[in-house]
Amino acid sequence: MFKQRLKPVDPHSSHTEARLLEAAGEIFAEVGYRSATVRQICEKAGANVAAVNYHFGDKEGLYLAVLRSVPDAHAEKYPPSRGLDVNATAEARLRAYIDSLLRRIFDAGRPGWHAQIIAREMVEPTPALDSLLEEVARPLHRELAAIVRHSLGPAADDDDVTLCALSIMGQCVYYHHARAVLSRLYPERTHSAEDMARLVDHITEFSLAALRELARKRQIRNDEAPKP
CA 50, 54, 59, 65 torsion: positive or negative? Predict the structure, then answer.
């Protein structure tokens, strides 16, 4: 089950395929993969039941395509590089990455099922989660880890890099997942465009300061270590 790799959705696909993806996204988000039926989806899309097999192979293929369409839409709208030159500094790349991640998380313009289906997959994972992580999440984590490693310098080990990358991601995600609490504790924060820019600046500066201090401590540790 779920052996196939996630495949990008063709932007020039037929109207039927697009309707199936949208209908499937809404139904999968509402009832989950296991409870959703191909017949339900096709009725909502106004398509023949055979259309799922024709365009996606089966229900599994349709679900994978739906999952893949979410990060595809995000990457197109908010690419992690944010248009930076390939020779940009690690500091600039980190700011761009944080800006992209925050804007993806708080994007109110996407369909409501986008957030719901990913949240459902996190809480009630299907075997498709492994494919989603390998094809989408792992490359994003590797990109952040590369930025962090460059900032920490050669004295840092793999565990330093992993923990720092997760800490940076954790800051971004917290502002979204805890927004119901934060909006009550700090009602003056509106998550406007100006507020979002301020948040990007804060997390970037906070993270860079931590990375510099950790790099300094690791270098001292290495310098004081007994030489072979």
Answer: negative
Cα torsion 91, 92, 96, 102 to 10°: value is 40
Return the closest-CA partner of residue 169 out of 137, 217, 193.
137
CA torsion sign for 26, 31, 34, 36 is negative
Residue 200's pLDDT is: 94
Q: Which domains does the chain have, with CATH numbers?
A: 1-77 (1.10.10.60), 79-222 (1.10.357.10)
- In which residue ranges of the chain is pLDDT below 70? 1-14, 72-74, 108-112, 191, 228
Residues 135 and 6: beta-carbon distance below 8 Å: yes
Helix boundaries (H) for 158-227 = 158-177, 179-185, 193-224
As given in the structure block, the two tokens for residue 58 are: 């089966």
Contact 39, 49 (CB under 8 A): yes
Q: Could you say which DSSP state residue 221 is in?
A: H
Whole-angstrom distance, CA of residue 186 vs CA of residue 175: 12
pLDDT on residue 83? 77
pLDDT digits (tens, 9 = 90+) for 115-162: 778 778 888 888 888 887 888 788 889 999 999 999 999 888 999 999
Q: How many CA atoms lie within 13 A of 162 on its CB side?
A: 4
Burial group, residue 228, by CB count within 10 angstroms (0-12, 13-18, 19+):
exposed
Write down the pLDDT at residue 9: 43
Using alpha carbons, select from 147, 133, 167 the residue that is nearest to residue 97.
147
**Residue that is written with structure tokens 């820019």 in the block:** 197
